[in-house]
Amino acid sequence: MKTAPTTHVIQLGYGKVGAPLVHLAIENRARIERETGVHMQYAAVVRSSSVALGDDLALRAADRGASFDEWTQRAPGMTLDVLDPIFDRFGLPDATRYVLVDVTATAETGPLLLEALGMGIPVVTANKIPLAETPGWFEQARAASQQASTPFRYECTVGGSLPVISTLVDLMTTGDTIQRIVALPSSSLSCILGGFNRGLPLDAAIADAMRRGFAEPNPLTDLAGRDALRKIVILAKTMGLPTSIGDVDQEPLLDQDYPDFDAFQGNGMARLAARLTAARQPGMVTYYVGSTSADGTVTLGLRSFAQASVWGTLEPSENIFLFSTSRFGDLPVVVRGIGGGPILTASGVLADIIKAAQRQI
Ligand SMILES: NC(=O)C1=CN([C@@H]2O[C@H](COP(=O)(O)OP(=O)(O)OC[C@H]3O[C@@H](n4cnc5c(N)ncnc54)[C@H](OP(=O)(O)O)[C@@H]3O)[C@@H](O)[C@H]2O)C=CC1
Ligand SMILES: N[C@@H](CC=O)C(=O)O
Known about the structure:
Elements: E1 6-12, H1 18-27, H2 29-36, E2 39-46, E3 50-53, H3 55-64, E4 72-73, H4 84-90, E5 97-102, H5 110-118, E6 123-125, H6 128-133, H7 137-148, E7 152-153, H8 165-173, E8 178-184, H9 187-197, H10 202-211, H11 220-223, H12 226-238, E9 249-250, H13 261-264, H14 267-279, E10 284-293, E11 298-306, E12 319-325, E13 333-337, H15 342-357
Parallel strand pairs: 1-2, 1-5, 5-6, 6-7, 9-11
Antiparallel strand pairs: 2-3, 3-4, 8-10, 8-12, 10-11, 12-13
């Protein structure tokens, strides 16, 4: 029987999403190979200052739960030096198949991901920051991917594991024209405002979003709408719009910048609760909603919808994306569901790794 070539996974990040990702990949390895022909091994897991090399380590990590202690100090910075020990051990990328996976929450990985794409190494990312916040990054990544047919997959940057980017790309590549996307893209804000809409106190709704793993490492990123903003920018860029983060007409959710979450608790929390209470109207639900239109208008802010509309049927933490297109006419294509959270996001990243290993762009 012909043996499938091995795809070596280099994973940046081993946090709330990264840890379950290793587990899912290892647990489902035989099934993945049987059903897709992709034989996957871990080459390395890289953290902020340490690295664990080799599939055997990843295997033992999966056996032992979420932590393993065989991390060694890694080269500082985020340049190709970080990957050198991996290439020394498993071979150079021209002779070895790799997929580079970013499940960190930092801009630091951006240059390395671009270098990898330039070397023909497929990139999978759930990290929105380089795509949305680093000027020109998304356009460079997409060009590098298209020029050499190197997969660049970022499904989980928007809507977690929901098929949002793939739906958008499929609509566009088959010649449909996207007129407008309206979206509730933040799982945290859906959880928080959905809970609040149903009468949960704001602090309890925020605690729920954090407990369920929706929040970013700094939860103020979600509460200030920055994470939702990143997602709307990624949708707009995927539509082919030249949108930068500063171009979005954003209604801020918080009354001021807070240095950290502790500083927000207390007065900040009370002021946000008062604002959301004031926005309440009988028979309506209020969410933090983004939209991106073909004419280049991109907006984000609090919007109220009739309880009797699809918005009134959303469960707290559900995302919804409504794509209005020329072909679909009056009835938009709708993608909705709970896509965020560590396990679901990890499953979406794993699906992207398999597609990248199959060279799906
Ligand atoms: N939670 C969710 O529902 C979803 C999350 N995402 C995205 O997934 C990503 C990961 O989120 P989450 O797991 O919660 O984040 P965590 O903060 O839990 O984990 C981040 C990981 O990145 C590592 N890291 C930080 N800087 C570097 C660096 N320079 N090089 C290598 N590793 C680094 C950290 O290392 P160390 O362990 O040393 O601290 C940590 O392991 C984020 O970008 C998030 O937006 C996307 C969709 C949904
Ligand atoms: N913090 C994000 C996680 C997924 O991207 C969110 O709340 O949606």
